[in-house]
Amino acid sequence: MDLLLPLTILVLMLDTPCGAFGKMGSNVKTAVFLSPKFELEPGSVANKFDYGVDFPRGHIALKSFNAEVVDELGNPVPLHETYLHHWVVARYYQAKNVTTHAGYDGHRVLHQSDYIMLRNSGICQRNALGQYFGLGSETRGTATDVPDPFGIVVGDPAEIPDGYEEQWLLNIHAIDTRGVVDKMGCTECRCDLYNVTKDENGEPIRSDYKGGLLCCYDETQCKVREGFEGLKRSLYLRYTVKWVDWDEFIVPVKIYILDVTDTVKIPDDSSGVLEHDCRTEYEVESFSSDKKDGNDYLHVKRTSVPMQKGGYVIYGVAHQHSGGTGSTLYGKDGRVICSSIPKYGKGKDAGNEENYIVGMSTCYPRPGSVKIIDGETLTLESNYSNSRGHTGVMGLFYLLVAEQLPHQHFRHASRSSFFTNINSLFE
Ligand SMILES: *[C@@H]1O[C@H](CO)[C@@H](O)[C@H](O)[C@H]1NC(C)=O
Ligand SMILES: *[C@@H]1O[C@H](CO)[C@@H](O)[C@H](O)[C@H]1NC(C)=O
Ligand SMILES: *[C@@H]1O[C@H](CO)[C@@H](O)[C@H](O)[C@H]1NC(C)=O
After folding, report:
1. For ligand 3, is residue 295 a contact (CB within 6 Å)?
2. What secondary structure letter does DSSP report for 413?
């Protein structure tokens, strides 16, 4: 089987469609990679971490990242068979004098002292939501392009410490729901369906925790219908990265991920150090008619978080799970910064699976038109239908923010006709 499919497919080509700026659009490079293999059988869970995965190298600006689960023949696998709970891509510096080694599951790991994690620009606490990219079931139908002349700049040799090199970590969490007794319950990681009472580290899970990632860690098993037979199969995350080589015309964007579960503490003193507490997941209790708060069948969760540094919003998208009905990020004065609405599938095929979120709408404000002020407190609102209860849901908001617009970025550069064109487009 392996012979049919080299472990890494690398397709390098020049994109034909031109962006707003001929120069940049025509220089976009595309590569398609396969993640290391993971294996699933009916009801089983894979939560794999792979250090040092294939990724474009050098001083570049990332322009998009998309992914999907495929089988050994390269066929897309639908969500009702393999539910893609999430994939996450993180960046780190690895000491050059060390190498990855196989972990308990054969996937490549590194000793913690041998690398330096590089998190995005915030805003959660140290270890939470520091990824550069990450999506879930919606990945096939969600735009991730960074418009020209903006880009996520990585691989700057001037920033990489001596003795280190830049590497990428891929985390894939997938659940095989073929033949399970309750597909939605398994995808929502309901502890009773996994018969789990202790977490991955053997610590007892508190009794009021009904479901979420603590109950569907790597190699756990969701309940399968009696007598159901299904083969173990090998799967991959096929991911497509687009980028341009770095040059001075690229305007960098910062990545922020906001979480509706964040209960940030704003200090009374002037230390200015905010204590974020992003929990990533939350529970939506089912509607009960004796609780007359707000809309029937709508669970609304909100949090307010200060952004120490602001800028111009270039891209925005929310991440929600099944049951989600939309999410909005508001400025301090109540203006809408971005609204992102899920699209549900209507059929059986990969990319259009009924009852699953198969895409999230995105925001591409005209650069300069949506500004977050330094220190502004934003309010994030995440809505779910609560006609039934949901465990382990998420309400994240991913933002790309430019601290300068092109004409500001280029102010001191030479006055070629290229700049004049850019200036006239953005002023
Ligand atoms: C590898 O390099 C790092 C950073 O230069 C250093 O701190 C560490 O001691 C080295 N480790 C080994 C095994 O040589
Ligand atoms: C659930 O777990 C308990 C304790 O780990 C075990 O004794 C029991 O057999 C399991 N039940 C099922 C249905 O697997
Ligand atoms: C979320 O619910 C609130 C309160 O009902 C509503 O005002 C808002 O428009 C909803 N947002 C989305 C994106 O559906």
Report:
1. yes
2. S
Q: What is the 3-state secondary structure (H, E, C) of 223-287?
A: CECCCCCCCCEEEEEEEEEEEEECCCCCEECEEEEEECCCCCECCCCCCCCCECCCCCEEEECCC
Nearest to 110 by CA among 37, 164, 58: 164
Domain segments of the chain: what residues? 2-409
The region, left, alpha or beta by phi > 0 then psi within -120 to 50, assigned to residue 130 is: alpha
Distance CA 62, CA 354 (A): 32
- Could you say which ligand is closest to the alpha carbon of residue 181? 2
- Residue 67 scores a pLDDT above 80: yes
pLDDT in tens, 269-287: 777 788 999 999 999 999 8
Residue 122: count other Cβ atoms within 10 Å of its Cβ: 19
Lowest mean pLDDT among 343-352, 367-376, 405-414: 405-414
Structural tokens at position 416 = 């070629």
| Ligand 1 and 163: CB distance under 6 A | yes
The residue whose two tokens read 């995350």 is 237
Q: Which atom from ligand 3 is nearest to the alpha carbon of 327?
A: 13
Q: For residues 270 and 260, is the Cβ–Cβ distance under 8 A?
A: no
Can you read off the two tokens belonging to residue 136? 């879930």
- β-strand partners of 227: none
Sheet arrangement for strand 298-306: 298-306, 377-385, 324-330, 336-340
Phi and psi torsions of 224, nearest 5° = -105, 145
